[in-house]
Amino acid sequence: MTEDTAAAKLAPAISRTAALLAAGAATLVVLLAALHFIEGELDPSWHFISEYAIGDYGWMMVVAFLSLALSYVSLFVAIRSQLRTIVGRIGLALLLVSALGLIIAAIFTTDPITVSEDALTTAGTLHNMGGTLGMAMPFAAGLIGWRLARIPAWSSAKGSLLWATGLALVAFVVSFVPIGVMVLQSGGKFCPEVLVGWPNRIEMIAYSVWLMVVAWQAIRVREHNS
Predict the structure, then answer these.
(1) Where are the domains of the chain?
(2) What distance in Å separates the CA atoms of residue 76 and residue 72, rounded to the nearest whole number?
(3) For the whole prediction, is pTM greater than 0.70?
(4) How many CA atoms lie within 13 A of 158 on its CB side?
């Protein structure tokens, strides 16, 4: 039995509950929007979203990170029956790596962006490690989105999957490249002239949109093939 045939027969095995939880990625978008107003003193143009965890309403950023991690794990549970090739399984594994990175980032609060390298705390260092693991997400989105779009049972979702996956990949490039260039030009120092904040926010929102699209399409595929 090919993966495509298996996916069609196993479509009813897609967990609707897990897919709905995955769509809860919208929680990050909502909380992030709220924090822009509540923590207005933190300039979003050059501060990373992780720094919202430092303020009085830091718990909101922690909840946002954990909710996104839950969405990653929930999507894994929802669609794992559909991905049986090596490519699909690598994508699912990277999705879990991304979830682990978010959990670590949520548990350990980041240091202020302006702190000197020799003043980094253990918590800040571990937070950065979580952020590094989170960089697996665009690769997970690319592999999963591309593989699902090739499965006949998901043909009706192909267009949505491809544009959402493209959005996630473009957001990663738009975030990673400019941030890298700006940081290099500033000698590794962050200041109001190093505008890393907006690319960071665009990237996280794009990942949330990708999760919501895949989760919604998973529900549609399940209902269509049930």
Answers:
(1) 3-225
(2) 6
(3) yes
(4) 7
